[in-house]
Amino acid sequence: xxxxxLPPLLALLALGGCGDDNDPSxxxxxxxxxxxxxxxxxxxxxxxxMEVVNLxxxxxxxxxxxxxxxxVDAVLDADVVLYLGSGFQPAVEDAIEGRDGRSIxxxxxxxxxxxxxxxxxxxxxGGDAVDPHFWLDPTLLADATEVIREALRDLDPGGESxxxxxxxxxxxxxxxxxxxxxxxxxxxxxxxxxTSHAAFHYLAERYGLRxxxxxxxxxxxxxxxxxxxxxxxxIEREGVTTVFYEELVSPEVAETLAREADVDTAVxxxxxxxxxxxxxxxxxxxxxxxxxxxxxxxxxxxx
Length: 303
What we know:
Blueprint: E1 30-33, H1 36-46, E2 51-54, H2 69-77, E3 80-83, H3 90-96, E4 102-105, H4 106-109, H5 138-155, H6 160-185, E5 192-197, H7 201-207, E6 210-215, H8 225-238, E7 242-245, H9 252-261, E8 264-267, H10 276-281, H11 285-300
Parallel strand pairs: 1-2, 1-3, 3-4, 5-6, 5-7, 7-8
């Protein structure tokens, strides 16, 4: 946190107010999260004891996020910031550089796979390259929930028992989801997952699928025409029935490949964020993952 005098907006966000009735945090610690999965986990664990602020609005692709000056101030004055590093949201990382308080990079705190990841946008990455979409493996989201629980306990030791109970309940839901995914995807006639970009490494690894992305880790990068040709051949050879696209990015390339290969398209959601309609419908990580499961069962011929 900064120790400077706060501008009016931050009186609504910062810890340690004087009990002003206009302060929505009510004097609770403020947790700033960079995008939806972290927001949901922090909200579920923190309950009424934390004020959780999501930097990425509904319907916004997190990779494209640019922060307003008010959001930068919120980052600087939060009690803790939960985010993903490794270039997932550069604007958030830039703002965090100005913080004095605690910031937690979940890609450092959760045991994600690092090393040679083929991003399809040039040479294969090595060293510390990482696919950031770890939450698509529910067991890794459960690990992240424990990291968040410990961080909130450190902010508010008096809430330890509440945070533990909330985290246990949330992890239980996540692990029930994992068991359902494992049971449903364990006996599929097809294993190849043709996707619009390489967001599904952890999902594929967890459930024995093969990710075949059109584009690499950055969904905005145009795919190589040779890649599209190879995928068309793979679709025909392996009997792939569906090309998956995402809700928050253009489906144009996926639709073009599907037309060329004469197969269907369907949504496979990386759950980087929710649309306004999903928010209004009360959707959650688990409900969207179950929608993903239904789409996978249809496309892969499972059961």
